[in-house]
Design goal:
eight-stranded mixed sheet; about 45% helix; two-stranded antiparallel ribbon; Rossmann fold; alpha/beta; 10 strands
């Protein structure tokens, strides 16, 4: 009988993989008809849990299937989001993952909720993941990390942590940045790279706010408040006030006129600030990523993080692996949504269906890893 069950599981695995991936697709995008999924799957269980971080124990939500485990686990790094934990879209994501088979822990960063990036989050995410895979209802061999926007960049960096890097089955990132050096240069210069140069770029207000808060976080409080107030809505035309040496360096970066000036200003920042930029750059962590599956996605017209950032990451991963582009283990997909949102792009129906198909097939490798045979 055990051999028969194993044979049936093995034979039906492709079907179950597609069904799980399709369940996630239908539930994560509210625009899609998902009532049949509700009829065929049980209501997920939502638990209040306490897990460790560098800041101590924090409370979070764990979404999991109501069926018996162990289930594949996933830590979702949401990044900087302009809404709170009670926002309906948070529950939509958690329920979509649980209905498709995952025990999903949603990681919320206190720093990112304050619109700042902090390298301490890298180890906090690793600690949260270690806690998750040690739960009896979670199968550590089928678990991994996934992040969106800057959360995707931090998921990649956390996956390289010695604390967990040999316990990760997959890591995925949607619209991550590759390096704080290149990303900061883009924001400061209001330009982004092309294959043969650069073009003007209207920096998204959220990207500017995170950049502004992150680059001023180590200044004296009075200077931090002044600079954040003056630059809250972009680059004002004003003379530099009397600032400390560190404050003047930050001011020069915030008033850069082009990519060259921005690069010079970045390298003129205090060494401690430069070290933070390096510490928050995924490109410096690629050789520490041991996950057998890495999935990257990015929207070509992303207004928050330029698509070139994911292209840099993909090229770096391929170069380190010594493999050819498109091989199993490293996957990269570009789409035409607007920063993870299919509705904002206002695509014609045919193109929308095509892009949703791209998203589906981009996620399938993750479900192939976690659906048991």
């Amino acid at each position: 009988m055990p051999n028969l069950i194993h044979f049936i599981n093995h034979a039906t695995r492709p079907v179950r993989t597609v069904a799980s991936a399709l369940t996630f697709l239908l539930k994560v995008f509210p625009m899609l008809p998902s009532k049949p999924v509700d009829w065929l799957t049980k209501l997920p269980v939502i638990e209040k849990v306490t897990y460790p971080t560098c800041q101590g124990l924090v409370e979070g939500d764990l979404y999991r299937p109501s069926t018996r485990g162990p289930h594949p686990g996933i830590v979702i790094c949401l990044g900087v989001v302009p809404f709170g934990v009670e926002h309906p879209q948070v529950a939509v994501l958690g329920n979509a993952l649980a209905r498709s088979g995952f025990a999903a822990l949603l990681y919320w960063s206190p720093a990112m909720r304050d619109f700042r990036l902090d390298p301490e989050d890298i180890e906090s995410i690793a600690m949260a993941y270690r806690w998750l895979v040690e739960q009896p209802s979670v199968d550590p061999a089928r678990s991994g990390l996934f992040g969106t926007c800057v959360g995707g960049a931090f998921a990649l960096m956390a996956s390289a942590s010695p604390l967990i890097r040999d316990r990760i089955g997959f890591v995925g990132a949607y619209a991550p940045y590759s390096s704080m050096w290149t990303f900061a240069q883009d924001i400061a210069s209001a330009s982004r790279p092309l294959e043969d140069g650069r073009e003007e770029w209207q920096v998204d207000p959220l990207a500017w706010k995170v950049f502004l808060h992150s680059i001023t976080s180590s200044l004296e409080p009075a200077e931090t408040d002044w600079i954040r107030t003056m630059f809250a809505n972009g680059k004002p035309q004003l003379d530099s006030p009397i600032l400390s040496e560190d404050g003047q360096a930050v001011y020069s970066l915030l008033t850069s006129l082009d990519a060259g000036q921005a690069e010079t200003a970045l390298h003129s920042l205090p060494q401690t600030m430069q070290s933070r930029l390096t510490a928050m750059s995924p490109m410096n962590y690629l050789d520490g990523i041991h996950a057998p599956l890495v999935v990257l996605l990015h929207d070509r017209g992303d207004p928050v993080i330029p698509v070139a950032e994911s292209r840099y990451l993909y090229a770096g991963l391929i170069r380190l692996s010594g493999l050819e582009a498109g091989v199993a283990g490293v996957h990269y997909t570009e789409m035409q949504f607007l920063h993870l949102d299919p509705a904002k792009g206002k695509l014609p129906l045919f193109r929308l269906v095509r892009e949703l198909g791209k998203f589906f097939f981009a996620m399938v490798p993750i479900f192939q890893r976690v659906v048991v045979s």
